[in-house]
Write a structure and sequence with these properties.
Layout lengths: L1 H12 L10 H10 L4 H30 L5 H27 L15
């Protein structure tokens, strides 16, 4: 649960810096607990993979905006808002499921860390 919530807190606290803090909490929890607690290992990797996937989406939206000299913002800003809302909702759902002891899998996530 803390891996998911740490991503939420980190993202909200570092929102002015492109939300880079959303990686730090899950990464620290995964590195510390990966060998001793299999459930925490699984959920911290899941939170980390989800946040990496959304960072890739964010960079793609930013590049699209820059390549189109700002005209792409008509598309990327609404998509970015929807992605942000989805991030918030899925992170809260994941924290609730993890608190109940259920393994949660984020939809549309690249499994980069195995």
């Amino acid at each position: 649960m803390f891996a998911h919530l740490s991503a939420l807190v980190g993202g909200l606290l570092t929102g002015a810096f492109a939300g880079l803090g959303c990686f730090i909490g899950p990464l620290i929890i995964w590195l510390i607990k990966k060998d001793t607690m299999p459930f925490v290992d699984d959920q911290a990797k899941e939170a980390l993979n989800f946040n990496i996937t959304l960072a890739i989406v964010g960079v793609a939206l930013l590049l699209l905006t820059l390549i189109t000299f700002g005209f792409g913002a008509l598309l990327t800003v609404p998509v970015g808002i929807l992605v942000g809302i989805a991030w918030l909702v899925f992170t809260i759902i994941a924290a609730i499921k993890a608190n109940e002891g259920e393994r949660y899998r984020y939809p549309f996530t690249l499994r980069l860390i195995k």
